[in-house]
Amino acid sequence: MLSAAQVRQTVDWIAGEQYSDGGLPWFRDGQLDPWDSVEAAMALDVGGRHERARAAYRWLAGRQRPDGSWAAEYRAGAETAPAAESNHAGYLAVGLWHSWLSTGDEQFVTELWPAVRRALDLVTRMQLPGGAISWALRPDGTPDDLALLTGNASLFQALRCGLALADLTGEAQPDWELAVADLGTALRERPDAFADRGRFSMDWYYPVLGGALTGAAAQDRLAAGWDRFVVPGLGIRCVSDRPWVTGAETCELALALVAAGRTDEALEQLAAMQHLRHDDGSYWTGFVYPDDARWPVERTTWTAAAVVLAADALAGATPAAGLFADPGVLPSPGIPAPAPSVTPFAGHAEPSRR
Q1: Which residues lie closer than 8 Å to 125 by C-beta, 6 or more apart?
Q2: Which portions of the sequence form the region Disordered (predicted)?
Q3: CATH T-level assignment (fold) for domain 4-329
Q4: What is the pLDDT of residues 226-238, one digit of tens each?
Q5: What does the DSSP 8-state code read for residue 281?
Q6: 109, 169 Cβ separation under 8 angstroms
Q7: Does this model's pTM top 0.85?
Q8: Packing angle between helix 201-209 and helix 215-229, nearest 10 degrees?
Q9: From CA 350, how far away is CA 115, in angstroms rounded?
Q10: What is the pLDDT of residues 67-117, one digit of tens each?
Q11: 3-state class (DSSP) for residue 294
């Protein structure tokens, strides 16, 4: 298990990669995408760097398009990949619910709620017959026919977080309730609704991580892919047919294992990927083990963030730890949110903005 000091060091490294305007890229002078930026912002909240997390969310809210979408990629604040992806649109809801659990800041929820509402309205408009959600909009603004399992599993969590936020704000969203019910059915019962990307480890564990599969179904899912993806002592493969383990996927598997009640195995996976840790608390993205080579040669905020979120889920150190530790009981409309408390990882005062 990582120590609190190690978690703080990793959070500090993430904060050091953030731009003065709040943008949170993969690394300095690298690309920024909305999903990974939200993940990194959640890690900042885990470490008590709440003003920096809010700045990252505000950066995204300020660049939302009128239809509720974001570009798939930004560099230096400019759109460099204009495609509008449903998964990118949905994840702000997860980040804002995590922020509420971390801080209890209702004013910030009120501020960001319109952006979340526009984003999830777009997601529901992108739902296809049968319940799956299109991965992206075509240039003419219509949903593509392709649906991706990992993205849909993440959207299942996003819609439920959106419904929890709707309950908090007092603005019921019945369309989201219908959408998430149909999406859950598709994830559990309609595998043919999604593109065949079974070689990717994320398609293996994400239905458990996002909360669509629980109980025996979750256990069966994890058991079915274990030998294909897990490399003992190193982590998990990103794709089943390549000798390449990646830190973020390994930590996300750890989150799924915690959600399934398998904490010992989750601890093993978090420990296994620590060979990717750099002296400054950052993490290399991956490792090609036959070549004894780190690849790609980069240290990413989203890899570091996945480590922080896994450590929090295992330690139960912050009020937001349960968002990933037990997604099957994500707060629903009508159930009050838990009262926030001081995070044990926040061992320093919030620095002034750079």
Answers
A1: 143
A2: 335-354
A3: Glycosyltransferase (1.50.10)
A4: 999 999 999 999 9
A5: S
A6: yes
A7: yes
A8: 160
A9: 26
A10: 999 999 999 989 999 999 999 999 999 999 999 999 999 999 999 999 999
A11: strand
